[in-house]
Amino acid sequence: QINVLQAKKKFEILDAMLSFMHAQYTFFQQGYSLLHELDPYMKKLATELDQLVIDSAVEKREMEHKHAMIQQRVSPGAALGTQHRFSPSPAVVCLSVCLSALRRWFSIQNSQLVYQKKLKDVLTVVVEDLRLCTVKPCEDIERRFCFEVVSPTK
Length: 154
What we know:
Elements: H1 2-73, E1 96-99, E2 104-109, E3 112-116, E4 124-127, E5 134-137, E6 147-150
Antiparallel strand pairs: 1-2, 2-3, 3-4, 5-6
């Protein structure tokens, strides 16, 4: 009786294992079918991604070229005293501002915010690198077009 019972258990274990293997096979077969249907979409997406990478590289090269051209056109002190000393491309503006009541000149040169009390005075660097700064609107001031330049140091 014990031998018959043990032999029967072997078949039950083998049947359970076979059932498990069949369930695994079905699961992976269905996953393959679903992914196989997505294959054309994934290929299309890959080609679009390749094109985006190429377009991005071309745009970066163009921007670097424009930057180099502008750097060649701008000499030190070019932004002082006037709003535009050279004819920049539409994407780049050289800024010089005179605070009319105080007669103080602020300008942007080489990614720095510089200051002069009088037009012929020595330049004082107010902010070392504007590329690291953010702008915060001043809402508590009555004058229009006022903002704060917030740098990592001040």
